[in-house]
Design goal:
Shape: globular
Strand order of the largest sheet: 2-12-11-3-9-10
Number of domains: 6
Radius of gyration: 28 Å
CATH architecture of the largest domain: 2-Layer Sandwich
CATH class of the largest domain: Alpha Beta
Strand content: 15-25%
Helix content: 25-40%
CATH topology of the largest domain: D-amino Acid Aminotransferase, Chain A, domain 1
């Protein structure tokens, strides 16, 4: 057989097998017998083994995997891969929908999809060919697991059209297959998701091929896309992706949208019944779901709504019930945040839920309290929403003291100023409110912000209460020697605090700016601004003076709301005064662009580090994080299966224990110093 004939035969067999795979795994309609399929597959394998240089990049033979070991490299995402905001009741979802419609200023329709309990994946296709499969990672950087994902038979290697498209989906293991595989494990996996995650991170794709993983695709991203989400989902099916049929479409009135006949459609009034039905029937599904996802259908409105640093504003997750406990509400206190937002917090009798003792529970706002009809002394059901945030779910028994439903005060408990309504929340608008100022100082000093060494919450509380620190800039102008003689402030501690404050002057602009506590200007947004060329605080002050919102909105990931807040805040005399005072104190408000020649060797590229404990050479320890990122590495605040290294100082604690269990590489300070010195 000539080379051209071999090429023609390989292509013919590949096309035929791809057609059969698509029919079998995506449409559940086999076109040929297993015997015939195997005969064709073996013929293709033989030709490829004899002519390895002619193997097609999308060959069906990649489904069997390779026995070559590999590391898991990192890749940058070209789309925002964020988490979702969460709601835990139909009422909270309806409230979010109403607010979203109000923000959009027009009628909207919403799509409800299953929230598959699996592993998030992003697939990149070039001219219809699967080019890259990456994990979600931290939302910006993911792991390249293309070889492993190619073995999943429901993942198309070639699409029906030669399009450039990026899709998001969830890889999962069907329950029946999980039970079968788990019965063979010496130490069984806790759930299908854990087994799926572990499988996808195996070093040999041939091992992944032996596990019958599956996938659902739920988002598609294309250049100049003018389709709404309903149309995108239908187009994804046409391209050959597996899309769940368990989808609901809801509009203010009876939907006029042309939808798949297998989907549910209704008006907003039918949402509650639909959610209840999905919740009840999830136990009958062949795979696990942990909630539902509600999305705005109109994609042009999504662009207007934009994103926060954590989640898109056009989607929310409805989570099923979480771990619960029963306790009694003893008191309800008021917290005043740095933005003036008033939050009621229930002090409850301590109760153990999900492995931790809960004694304080957020009550969100008055509407939430009214919905619960909550009063002091009530016996309540408390859950850990998302297994993290404690919340009161319902009142089980009313109090015996005839206490009525608790009401928010009309004035700020800190400054006695009148409170005003902004949406569902009350706010104190007094910028001189002591609790607001205190919360702003605490935020500035936080470990995820300036992280000033030896300047913990107790020290800050004392200095504020004594009147030594009244504003953030006072941190840099106060003479800490004046603390001599106060209990707990010996000369050694005073020197350590002074040194920590002085050292914080070296913190880079990308850490200083989000520490100011300006709404919507977290680390993610600051990174976006710096990447877009706003490398100096004066750049933001200038654009605010010009009220050039459009220039900010042009930055991918900065929505209109964020842009408007930036304009407002950097036009505020209060913000400008704060910046001037901190500039005078010596803080850095410029990010210098580093040339390739001046860059440090990128020896930590592809690595994810967690830092814990205290260090001799890094005070505060965030300086160690700067050393890692300047050499190409990433840092994280927690130890997970994705963490490659743990930098462990004195009193490392639980993070060290977890890293040891996961087999994470543990680096001491001495070894870390050697690594830095060797590679500089």
């Amino acid at each position: 057989m000539t080379k051209n004939k071999i090429i023609e035969e390989i292509r013919k067999l590949s096309d035929l097998l791809s057609l059969y795979q698509n029919a079998y795994y995506l449409k559940n309609k086999p076109l040929v017998s297993d015997l015939e399929y195997d005969r064709l597959f073996d013929s293709l394998l033989l030709l490829e083994q004899e002519n390895p240089e002619l193997v097609l990049p999308n060959s069906p033979s990649s489904r069997v995997g390779s026995d070559l070991s590999r590391d898991i490299p990192e890749v940058s995402h070209t789309i925002p891969v964020l988490s979702l905001d969460k709601g835990y009741s139909v009422e909270s979802i309806r409230d979010w929908m109403d607010k979203t419609i109000s923000k959009a200023g027009s009628d909207l329709s919403f799509i409800v999809e299953e929230k598959i309990d699996g592993v998030s994946i992003v697939l990149y296709y070039k001219k219809g060919i699967l080019e890259l499969a990456a994990t979600r990672g931290n939302g910006s950087i993911g792991n390249d697991i293309t070889a492993n994902v190619r073995t999943i038979k429901s993942v198309p290697l070639r699409l029906s059209e030669a399009v450039d498209i990026v899709v998001r989906g969830e890889i999962f293991l069907p329950l029946a297959e999980f039970e079968k595989l788990n019965s063979l494990q010496e130490v069984p996996f806790a759930n299908p998701r854990n087994l799926t995650a572990g499988t996808l991170r195996r070093k040999k794709s041939i091992d992944v091929a032996s596990v019958p993983l599956d996938i659902f695709i739920y988002e598609g991203f294309m250049d100049k896309n003018e389709m709404d989400h309903v149309e995108i989902l239908q187009y994804l099916k046409k391209l050959g992706f597996r899309v769940s049929d368990n989808i609901g479409v809801f509009s203010p009135s009876t939907p006029k949208i042309k939808i798949d006949p297998t989907w549910f459609s209704g008006n907003f009034d039918s949402l509650s019944t639909y959610v209840e039905k999905q919740t009840t029937e999830r136990k009958n599904l062949p795979y696990e779901i942990d909630g539902l996802v509600i999305k705005v259908n109109e994609t042009d409105v999504r662009d207007t709504l934009g994103f926060t640093g954590h989640h898109p504003r056009w989607a929310i997750a409805y989570k099923f019930e979480s771990p619960v406990g029963t306790t009694i509400v003893k008191e309800i206190d008021i917290q005043v945040g740095r933005t003036g937002r008033i939050t009621p917090v229930a002090r409850v009798e301590p109760v153990l839920i999900g492995g931790s003792t809960i004694s304080n529970v957020t009550l969100h706002n008055q509407d939430y309290i009214n919905l619960l009809e909550l009063a002091l002394g009530d016996t309540v059901s408390v859950s850990k929403r998302g297994d993290v945030i404690p919340a009161v779910e319902r009142v089980i028994d009313k109090n015996e003291d005839n206490n009525s439903v608790w009401q928010m005060p009309g004035v700020c408990p800190s400054c006695n100023s009148d409170l005003i309504n902004k949406g569902a929340h009350l706010f104190c608008t007094n910028s001189e409110c002591p609790d607001q100022i205190k919360a702003g100082i605490f935020f500035f000093l936080g470990k995820n912000q300036m992280d000033i060494d030896n300047f913990g919450p107790e020290t800050a509380e004392f200095l504020i209460d004594q009147g030594f620190i009244k504003r953030i800039p006072d941190i840099y102008t106060f003479n800490y020697n004046n603390l001599e003689g106060f209990p707990g402030f010996g000369s050694k501690k005073i020197k350590l605090i002074t040194a920590g404050v002085q050292q914080s002057l070296n913190q880079p602009y990308r850490r200083v700016l989000p520490s100011l506590g300006i709404p919507e200007l977290g680390k993610k947004a600051v990174e976006l601004l710096i990447t877009a060329g706003f490398r100096d605080i004066d750049d933001l002050i200038t654009i605010a003076a010009e009220k050039d919102t459009e220039k900010l909105v042009e930055i991918k990931g900065i929505g209109e709301r964020t842009a408007e807040i930036i304009i407002t805040e950097f036009s505020s005399s209060k913000t400008l005064e704060l910046i001037d005072n901190l500039k005078n104190a010596g803080l850095i408000f410029t990010e210098e662009e580093i040339s390739k020649e001046d860059m440090l060797p990128q020896v930590f590229e592809g690595q994810i580090w967690c830092i814990t404990g205290s260090f001799e050479n890094f005070k505060p320890r965030s300086l160690a994080g700067d050393e890692i990122t300047s050499r190409g590495g990433k840092t994280t605040t927690s130890v997970t299966g994705k963490t490659t290294h743990l930098l462990a100082g004195e009193s490392a604690g639980s993070k060290l224990t977890k890293a040891q269990k996961l087999g994470t590489t543990i680096i001491t300070e001495d070894i870390f110093m050697e690594m830095l010195n060797t590679n500089d």
